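User: Fold this; tokens only.

Assistant: Input:
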Amino acid sequence: MNENAHRFLALYQTLATTLVGAALALFVGYKKWGISPDTARSGVIGLLALTTVVAAFTMTLIVVGALSWLDYRNEECDITDEMVGVGFRKRPRPGNLSRWYETYILIFIITSVVTMWLLGGFLLLPGIK
């Protein structure tokens, strides 16, 4: 699961950086390129929305991976209970979520998307005139 989470985070970081960079380029160059302000605003919103979709996809992959691992771990505990003895392997506890780095990856993604929309809404979109 660790390798997949890192792969998904790299995917998010790469695509989010590219898409937000494109939104900034559109903001900076729309007048020079002869694009109307309404079209530029729509383009920035579209790029921010696409970044949000990428974030949602990445978060879904991380959550599904964690749920799969939990299922695998519970099956492993069932097998060791039968083969070795009851209680040989402890089952995962939801209280341990604060120790999983996937939790912090999800918090980072959510925080970055919220920040992106706030900065876009308060700085970029009002500046397109």
